[in-house]
Structure to design on (484 residues):
């Protein structure tokens, strides 16, 4: 049985199953702080323009604050028959204040109310995730700091290709993470507009002051179109796509950790704290955490696709389908946070094995391109050099040897253009790195520059997060309910 939430139009009780399908309170109660903050800003504005008396506004604000504390302390009883977070709070207010509570919803609809709540929630959550991303970038940069001379084979097609440094390799992920953090901030900035005042879809005839509400809630702008504002979920989609892409990056790194801890590579050891054993094989130490991060990437991308499919083809303006926006968003927010934090800790506690990485360079003809490049330096056209070194590799393969084990005589016969000094240099991975000295390349001095640049970028983006937070600090009471 339901109490009459929708007023006089309804005479029959809601079917119980409909109640369950229709209700969102189980998951949207997570928006209660935002909902109450939005209501307080709204009632203050209604009082300021004379739509409610100061006394009624004060009573309503007081009631909302009490409800806020009741929810904070876990004493509030959420009722599924009251459908969603908005109705639960409004009904609880009515229990306290009687008919006066009914003045709160003047010039407002749940459609612009929920649009506001979601923006308020995501505005903060996007900044939280951006700073989690930056923490992870910091952890990678800490690991990279002393690894500009740690050489390992770089891979293409998972075949040993050319030497790179571990620092350069880690920096590749830092570059991805910096883009991820920026994407989250860009989504934040675009969403930073007040939708309240759009009404159900067509605004309100009451003389409200939208800028007043925007100022109390720290929004620099108002949404431009009421139809769009109540049915726009771009911020949710942008978050989910930024999250999916970020998870893709985490997944690639995780895959490398899974490979690198294997007996086949042994490039890294993960702390026991981030691994588990097997119930049957006593020797096993499994990299479950990177495996799960890789696995959860599917889940976050699933959330993105789920929301896009929900929104596709919806006519203007609000449709109840949109209630399906919250679960994917909340799930992705939690999953992304957990994955970032756990990988940050995993990487901080990881031990890399430079000797093992270097041994990866001794097989697989990783230095072949350097020999070809040395030939180019003494005037041989690159295609010709490529062909001749290919033949050299072919000979070694047939003999079951490596370039490094060819004799001085072999070199003199096969590549007479090069002195032994030039050959030795071309076979030295550190020299190879040093020669790859273009901006963005793995030469140790370039990687040191990149380290400085990346650290500066992390600080710059962090400053952007802090500045954006300051915009919303006005809503301190949104966080702890106490500050005015
Ligand atoms: N629970 C709803 C949602 O999440 C709130 C808005 C409902 N509006 C309505 N007219 N039924 O979208």
């Amino acid at each position: 049985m339901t109490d009459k939430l929708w007023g006089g139009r309804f005479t029959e009780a809601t079917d119980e199953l409909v109640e369950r399908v229709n209700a969102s309170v189980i998951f949207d109660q997570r928006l209660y702080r935002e909902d109450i903050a939005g209501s307080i800003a709204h009632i203050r504005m209604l009082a300021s323009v004379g739509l409610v008396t100061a006394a009624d506004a004060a009573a309503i604000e007081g009631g909302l604050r009490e409800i806020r504390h009741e929810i904070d302390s876990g004493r509030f009883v959420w009722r599924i028959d009251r459908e969603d977070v908005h109705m639960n709070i409004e009904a609880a207010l009515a229990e306290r204040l009687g008919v006066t509570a009914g003045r709160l919803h003047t010039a407002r609809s749940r459609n612009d109310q929920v649009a506001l709540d979601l923006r308020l929630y995501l505005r903060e959550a996007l900044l939280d995730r951006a700073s989690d991303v930056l923490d992870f970038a910091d952890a990678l940069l800490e690991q990279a700091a002393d690894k500009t001379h740690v050489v390992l084979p770089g891979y293409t097609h998972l075949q040993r290709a050319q030497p790179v440094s571990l620092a350069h390799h880690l920096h590749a992920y830092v570059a991805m993470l910096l883009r991820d953090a920026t994407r989250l901030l860009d989504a934040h900035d675009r969403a930073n507009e007040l939708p309240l005042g759009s009404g159900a879809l067509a605004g309100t005839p009451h003389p409200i002051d939208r800028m007043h509400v925007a100022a109390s809630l720290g929004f620099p702008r108002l949404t431009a179109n009421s139809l769009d504002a109540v049915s726009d979920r771009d911020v949710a989609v942008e978050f989910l796509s930024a999250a999916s892409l970020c998870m893709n990056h985490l997944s690639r790194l995780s895959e490398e950790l899974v490979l690198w801890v294997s007996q086949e590579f042994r490039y890294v050891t993960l702390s026991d704290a981030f691994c588990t054993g097997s119930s049957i094989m006593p020797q096993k130490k499994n990299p479950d955490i990177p495996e799960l991060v890789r696995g959860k990437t599917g889940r976050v991308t699933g959330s993105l696709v789920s929301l896009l499919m929900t929104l596709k083809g919806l006519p203007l303006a609000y449709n109840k389908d949109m209630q399906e926006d919250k679960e994917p968003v909340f799930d992705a927010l939690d999953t992304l946070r957990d994955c970032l934090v756990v990988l940050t800790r995993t990487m901080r506690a990881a031990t890399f094995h430079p000797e093992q990485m270097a041994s990866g360079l001794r097989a697989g003809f990783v230095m072949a391109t350097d020999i070809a490049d040395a030939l180019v330096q003494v005037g041989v056209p690159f295609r010709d050099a490529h062909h001749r070194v290919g033949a050299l590799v072919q000979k070694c393969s047939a003999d079951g040897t490596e370039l490094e084990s060819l004799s001085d005589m072999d070199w003199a016969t096969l590549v007479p253009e090069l002195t032994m000094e030039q050959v030795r240099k071309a076979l030295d991975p550190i020299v190879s790195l040093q020669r790859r000295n273009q901006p963005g390349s793995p030469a140790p001095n370039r990687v040191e520059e990149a380290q400085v640049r990346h650290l500066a970028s992390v600080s710059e983006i962090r400053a952007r997060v802090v500045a954006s937070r300051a915009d919303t600090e006005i809503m301190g009471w949104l966080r702890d309910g106490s500050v005015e």
Notes: The chain has three domains: 16-106, 111-199+223-359+450-478, 368-426. The domain at 368-426 is CATH 1.10.40.30 (Ribonucleotide Reductase Protein R1; domain 1). The mean pLDDT is 94. The two ends are 39 Å apart (CA to CA).
